[in-house]
Specification:
The protein is of the alpha/beta class. 47% of the residues lie in helices and 15% in strands. The protein has one domain: TIM Barrel, CATH 3.20.20.220. Helix 3 packs parallel to helix 4, helix 5 runs parallel beside helix 6 and helix 10 packs across helix 11. The structure holds flavin-adenine dinucleotide (FAD). Its EC number is 1.5.1.54.
Length: 295
């Protein structure tokens, strides 16, 4: 089913993002994560795609497993960076043949070891070009990425929303937002979208705190601010107590989700980092307070 159809049902959606495992040990852990999260009956799941095609085969296998074996609605991501058009077409055709109905069109970031002068001249520079290419050649339901705090390379937050509007106008059906630790960024982003004529649904991205190192690294990579409230909460925890940190992360994200749901968001999209404990804790917590219904 297309995400646009699922969103029409009017209930906030629940979705989980996965990335392909890089080692056998990680694959075992991912299998357990998938089983734990599929049990929560998400509306859809999603699978990342390494820029430059680095995870092309792994992404395909994971999409296939989730679609065929686990019978999940899947949003397959496609990051266009450094890919030639025939490579993009091959990926899209493979997903179409698998029965995938939803694609998230991304630019992707240049991997650190890539010589950008070697990028094929024909490859797309911006996600808007990939979105237009998909819309012209395929009938997928099409998602794009949005940045509540502005994209890290954008010249300004105003320009970023103009570029997002242009990207959406290429035929996007929904937006998945980058994560944020303060809801005010997302709520302001929704207001900017509306003011700029972006009318498609925007799903907030939720990134629970898994570890301090990971939180700082991920937030640093995308320019997400770590608010004082979160910093203070973490500083009160016993040092090195992983369980206390994960529990606090669950509680913090639950607070974010409750407020977002009260504000009428169209769904909750969890960046699982291929771990289940936090997402299970948050979703069960929200359901116990009747903030989310089972599909
Ligand atoms: C939900 C989500 C999922 C993601 N999944 C993946 C993944 O699976 N694989 C991966 O590699 N990365 C992924 N990313 C990261 C993403 O690829 C990076 O954030 C990347 O830097 C931007 O991708 P984009 O599609 O938003 O690019 P774009 O929309 O092309 O924007 C990139 C930058 O260019 C600017 N821009 C856009 N159009 C123009 C223009 N015409 N002129 C000048 N500037 C312009 C924008 O303001 C922005 O600063 C994901 C991000 C999100 C939010």
């Amino acid at each position: 089913m297309k995400i646009s159809e699922i969103l029409k049902k009017g209930k906030p959606t629940l979705s989980f993002e996965f990335f392909p495992a890089r080692t056998e040990k990680a694959a075992e852990s991912l299998n357990k994560t998938i089983d734990d999260l599929v049990e929560l009956k998400p509306d859809f799941v999603s699978v990342t795609f390494g820029a430059g095609g680095s995870t092309k085969d792994g992404s395909y296998e994971l999409v296939k497993k989730l679609k065929k074996e686990k019978e999940q609605e899947v949003v397959a991501y496609l990051a266009a960076f450094a890919l030639k058009k025939d490579e993009i077409t091959a990926v899209l055709n493979n997903y179409k043949d698998l029965g995938i109905e939803n694609i998230l069109a991304l630019r992707g970031d240049p991997p650190k070891d890539v010589d950008v002068t070697q990028v094929p001249a024909e490859s797309f520079k911006y996600a808007s070009e990939l979105a237009a290419f998909i819309r012209q050649n395929y009938s997928f339901c099409l998602g794009v990425a949005g940045y509540p705090e502005g994209h890290i390379d954008a010249p300004s937050i105003e320009k970023d929303i103009e570029y997002l509007k242009y990207k959406v106008d290429q035929g996007a059906d929904f937006i998945i937002a980058q994560f944020f630790y303060d809801n005010v960024y997302f709520l302001n982003f929704i207001e900017r979208c509306q003011k700029n004529g972006i009318k498609i649904p925007v799903l907030p991205g939720i990134m629970p705190v898994y570890s301090i190192k990971m939180m700082e690294m991920l937030a640093g990579n995308c320019g997400a601010k770590i608010p004082l409230k979160l910093q203070k909460g973490i500083s009160k925890l016993p040092e090195g107590d992983t369980k206390a940190l994960v529990d606090f992360g669950i509680e913090y994200a639950m607070g974010q989700c409750e407020e977002l749901l009260k504000e009428g968001v169209r769904g909750l999209h969890f960046y699982t980092m291929d771990k289940s404990e936090s997402a299970v804790g948050i979703v069960k917590g929200l359901r116990s307070k009747s903030f989310l219904t089972v599909k």
